[in-house]
Design brief:
The protein is mainly α. The protein folds into two domains: 94 residues, RNA polymerase sigma factor, region 2, helix turn helix motif (Rna Polymerase Sigma Factor, Chain: A, Orthogonal Bundle), CATH 1.10.1740.10; 93 residues, Winged helix-like DNA-binding domain superfamily/Winged helix DNA-binding domain (Arc Repressor Mutant, subunit A). The chain is 73% helix and 0% strand. The chain has ten helices and no strands. Helix 3 crosses helix 4. It comes from Cryptosporangium japonicum. Belongs to the sigma-70 factor family. ECF subfamily. Pfam families: Sigma70_r2, Sigma70_r4_2. This is RNA polymerase sigma factor SigM.
Length: 195
C-alpha cells in the first residue's frame, strides 16, 4: 500500500482520520522545529510557538485551500506563530549577556570554536529585524526556494530577496570579526573612544 501524500493526509484528517495529522506532523516536525527555533532563538519559546502553530493547523485544516503545498501552509503557520510570540516578548524587557572578549583565535577543526562561532551567528541573527531574520532562516538556513518563502510569508518574491540581501549585509558587518579576529578589537576600541 502506497503512503498518502501530504494533501491526502490533510484531507483524511479533515474527514476524521485520527492518525492522519500525527503522520503529517511526524513527516515535517524536524524542519518545522528548526524554523521555530532559529526564528525565536530560545528553545522554550520555540517549543511553545511550534505547539501553538500545530494546534492552529490541526483546528484550521478545513480552511486549507490547496493553493500551496501543505508544507508551505504549515511553515506559514509556524512562522506566524513565532512572529506573534516575538511581538509579545518584545514588550518584556531583556538584559543582554556580557560578551567574552578573551577568546583565542579558533584552531582548525576545533569543536569548541565551531560552537562559539555558531553562537555568534545565532546572536547576530537574533539582532536582525524579525522580517530579515525569518527570510534568511527560511532561504539560507532551511534552503527553501525564494518563491516558496514568499508564499509562506505572504509577500512578493522581491520582498524576500530584499530582506535576505539586507539581512546578509547586516550579518557581514556583525560577523566580520569571524573573518578577521582583530576586527572585533578594532571596532570595540573605536566604540570605547567614541563614548
Amino acid at each position: 500500500m502506497q503512503p498518502l501524500d501530504d494533501r491526502a493526509l490533510l484531507r483524511a484528517h479533515v474527514d476524521g482520520d485520527p492518525d492522519a495529522f500525527s503522520e503529517l506532523v511526524r513527516r515535517h516536525r524536524d524542519r518545522l522545529w528548526a524554523v521555530s527555533l532559529r526564528t525565536i532563538g530560545n528553545s522554550e519559546d520555540a517549543a511553545d510557538a511550534l505547539q501553538d502553530a500545530l494546534l492552529s493547523a490541526y483546528r484550521s485544516a478545513g480552511t486549507y485551500r490547496g493553493d500551496a503545498a501543505v508544507t508551505t501552509w504549515l511553515h506559514r503557520i509556524v512562522v506566524n506563530s513565532c512572529l506573534d510570540r516575538i511581538r509579545r516578548r518584545q514588550s518584556r524587557p531583556t538584559v543582554p549577556l556580557p560578551e567574552d572578549d578573551g577568546r583565542a583565535p579558533a584552531a582548525p577543526n576545533d569543536p569548541i570554536a565551531a560552537r562559539e562561532t555558531a553562537l555568534d551567528v545565532q546572536a547576530a541573527l537574533a539582532e536582525l529585524p524579525v522580517e530579515q531574520r525569518v527570510a534568511l532562516i527560511l532561504v539560507d538556513v532551511q534552503g527553501h526556494p525564494v518563491a516558496d518563502v514568499a508564499e509562506m510569508l505572504d509577500v512578493a518574491v522581491g520582498t524576500v530577496k530584499s530582506r535576505c540581501a539586507r539581512g546578509r549585509a547586516r550579518l557581514a558587518v556583525m560577523l566580520g570579526h569571524l573573518r578577521n579576529p582583530d576586527a572585533r578589537n578594532d571596532v570595540e576600541s573605536t566604540e570605547g573612544g567614541a563614548r
